[in-house]
Every structure is written in structure tokens, then in C-alpha cells.
Write a structure and sequence with these properties.
Length: about 140
């Protein structure tokens, strides 16, 4: 029995650069190579299973870039609970980088998303983040 038994050629559909509805699949607070605080936002275009990472670095353009993201996904200005952003739907202009990989060129404002085709597949929904309840006594822990 060989590892190649049952192999058949399978190629994934390639997305062309353009405007797409996208959903946030992951958000992480981290530090850039230059040492600046940074948000890494992963988005999934409608009708695909690929993830594209977008970087928002705390620099001169931070406020503009974060405003663009929040306006596209309908995230309130005061909402900085990044776990609750997961599942939010917005739109982005996707372009190829110099290596041929898709990247987010910019996010499209909510007011300008009306001409985009409807979401393909299961409609994303925002994750709900709940606070932790205080335990009255550590003896209530199951371990």
C-alpha cells in the first residue's frame, strides 16, 4: 500500500483581484518587526475558504486604517473588544502582491457595499463575548 494510492489531481479555485464581501475570522494583538503594537486581522472572502491576513500597525496611519476597518465591518468606534469582531461581515478590495498572493488593498465603507454580490455560502455572524462571572469561593472549582 502506497501513500499515493487514491491520489487524484485537485486544484482550488483561484480568486481574481477585485472587490469582495469578507468576514473577519481572527484578530490578534501582537508586535511588528519594528517593535510597534499591531493588529493582525484575518479575513475570508465570500465563497472561498482562504484567509488573508491584514496588518494594522500603530504608526502615523493607525487611526485612519482602524477607522476604515471599523466602518467597513460596522464596528462601533468605542468597541475595542477584538474577540467580538470575529464573524463581522464587511468588504475589501483585494489585490495581488509582488509574489502573486492576494492581500487587502483597502476596506470598503459600508455605504459603498450595496453593489457587491450577496454573500455566498453560510452567512457569517459576529461572535458574542460575555464577561466572566466572579466565583464566590475557589472551592466551587471542579478541579
Amino acid at each position: 500500500m502506497s501513500i499515493f494510492d487514491g491520489y487524484r489531481r485537485e486544484e482550488s479555485a483561484r480568486l481574481e483581484p477585485g472587490d469582495y464581501r469578507v468576514a473577519i475570522t481572527e484578530v490578534e494583538e501582537t508586535v511588528s518587526k519594528s517593535g510597534n503594537p499591531m493588529l493582525v486581522v484575518a479575513v475570508r472572502p465570500s465563497g472561498s475558504n482562504i484567509r488573508i491576513k491584514h496588518y494594522i500597525v500603530k504608526n502615523d496611519y493607525f487611526n485612519r486604517n482602524l477607522t476604515s476597518l471599523k466602518d467597513s465591518f460596522g464596528i462601533a468606534d468605542e468597541d475595542n473588544e477584538i474577540l467580538g469582531w470575529i464573524g463581522a461581515a464587511g468588504a475589501a478590495r483585494l489585490a495581488e502582491d509582488d509574489r502573486g498572493y492576494l492581500k487587502v488593498r483597502w476596506f470598503i465603507h459600508r455605504d459603498k457595499q450595496g453593489t457587491l454580490p450577496p454573500w455566498e455560502g453560510e452567512q457569517p455572524s459576529r461572535q458574542q463575548v460575555q464577561g466572566f462571572e466572579e466565583l464566590a469561593d475557589d472551592d466551587d472549582l471542579p478541579f
